[in-house]
Amino acid sequence: MTASAAVSAVLVLAHAGHWIVSALYVLPVLVIVGALTVQGRLEKRRARRQADDDAPQP
Known about the structure:
mainly alpha
């Protein structure tokens, strides 16, 4: 391995480390958005089932 290849490998790892630290700041936002999305889908499903139950049966 040449010296330039070793330096490139170190820089890539350092860069990935910076991305990981930055991702930690975004993670709570993604968790909240995901929870709200799941909750919205559950509410729609619950409302649809209730509407089907309230509909007059032939």
